[in-house]
């Protein structure tokens, strides 16, 4: 199995949109109303929105590929791109998704480790993320990697407000 980590750019917009929508639906369709998911993906993964995020100097998207096929993606934010004010010493993992067909192969851990390396490259002390309070498997995964809950914030799924746990890991 050959795993590669590829920075995304404008040429990847269609694939980024597809993997973003597909993985979001795979992850949340069984616990949320279809109309809420539909409203969210139409906005969050609209090509214009993705281009705006790709062009932000403090945001970065990456694909993880397995044997040349996109298996998932990572989006990190720093400084003013963070979805919460966490300061200049923090890096946010805003999105980290692996296609179901590629899960349980160590790719989530691989992407987290890549995020840690990006944080170190930019001299960030903390890495944080938001995870839905009902996503127990993801919470356990992040705890296993050393993240601890440091707060909560609201996340809008369509017009439904949900609660995300903010989990943080301080890098050594």
From TrEMBL:
Keywords: Acyltransferase, Transferase. It comes from the Bacteria. The keyword Acyltransferase applies. Residues 3-172 form the N-acetyltransferase domain. One of its GO terms (molecular function) is acyltransferase activity, transferring groups other than amino-acyl groups. This is GNAT family N-acetyltransferase. It comes from Bacillus pumilus (Bacillus mesentericus).
């Amino acid at each position: 199995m050959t795993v590669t980590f590829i920075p995304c750019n404008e040429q990847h917009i269609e694939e980024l949109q597809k993997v973003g929508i597909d993985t979001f639906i795979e992850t949340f369709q069984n616990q949320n109303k279809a109309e809420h998911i539909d409203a969210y993906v139409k906005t969050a993964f609209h090509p214009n929105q993705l281009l705006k995020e790709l062009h932000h100097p403090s945001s970065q998207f990456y694909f993880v590929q397995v044997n040349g096929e996109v298996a998932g993606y990572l989006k990190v934010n720093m400084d003013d791109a963070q979805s919460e004010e966490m300061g200049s010493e923090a890096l946010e993992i805003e999105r980290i998704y692996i296609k179901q067909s590629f899960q349980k192969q160590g790719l989530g851990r691989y992407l987290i480790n890549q995020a840690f390396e990006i944080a170190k490259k930019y001299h960030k002390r903390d890495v944080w993320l938001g995870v839905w309070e009902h996503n127990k498997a993801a919470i356990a995964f992040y705890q296993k990697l050393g993240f601890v809950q440091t707060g909560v914030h609201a996340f809008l799924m369509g017009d439904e407000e949900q609660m995300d746990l903010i989990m943080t890991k301080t890098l050594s």
